[in-house]
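INFO batch 0412 | record 1 of 1 | parsing
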Amino acid sequence: MRIEIKKENYNRFLKRKEVEIFIDHPEQATPSADVVRDSVAEQTSSDKDKIEVRQIMSSSGSPESKGVVFVWDEKFVKKEVKEEAPKE
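INFO prediction complete | emitting tokens
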């Protein structure tokens, strides 16, 4: 699998880097957000906690995908935890 950064744009107002990626994954399923996050963190020399995978899109039957990733300057991305309603 190969993940390549196609385009980077820095958004000064929101203090983040907006990255468009291309993923080539022959004979493999579309990679998970965690795999993409690790690869982008390595390529951009950023902390993994500041990377938010916004979108991974692949065509049916195609070994290629596109994605959008945000690399935040100050924000730490947290996984959402769903809280269950109290049982009565």
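INFO post-check: The CA atoms of residues 15 and 74 lie 7 Å apart.
INFO record closed
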